[in-house]
Amino acid sequence: MSGRQATTTLWRPTGPVELDLVRELNWRAWPPRLPEQPIFYPVLNEDYAVRIARDWNVKHDGAGFVTRFEVESEFLSRYPVQQAGGRTILELWVPAEELDDFNAHIVGEIQVVQEFRRGDESL
Predict the structure, then answer these.
(1) pTM check: above 0.85
(2) At 8, is the secondary structure helix, strand, or coil?
């Protein structure tokens, strides 16, 4: 029997400022939320993360990034899946005051898997 816990893959669309903070945290944690951000919301599928990074982050921040990371599945069970629109628009809503605990259950590093910038031909 393996001692490795089951994990769930999550994605997070992010802009350049938040990505710099993740880099400063050695790709192992998400930075504290700002006062106007009471919820941290990772998403459950890459397509949804791409849409936000490409269509929202690029427009507002000049660049958007899709990150992927693993979190212990048992820990995530405390957060019900939220359907924020269509069938595939699924998120977890982590209260800002629980983010340190959430970060403690990330397994491995947060990885950038896609990048979009203003002026990209793909946009």
Answers:
(1) yes
(2) strand
3-class SS at 102? helix
Number of domains in the chain: 1
Q: Which two tokens stand for residue 23?
A: 């880099």
Q: How far apart, in whole angstroms, are the C-alpha atoms of residue 77 and residue 98?
A: 14
Tokens for 116, please give them. 């979009």
CB 13 within 8 A of CB 66: yes
Q: From CA 64, how far away is CA 88, in angstroms rounded?
A: 20
Domain of residue 33: give its range: 8-117
For residue 3, being part of any structural domain is answered with no
113 belongs to a structural domain: yes
Residue 92's H or E segment, with its range, is strand 90-92
Contact by Cβ (8 Å): 15, 63: yes
| Interval 47-60: pLDDT, tens | 999 999 999 999 99
CATH number of residue 69's parent domain: 3.20.170
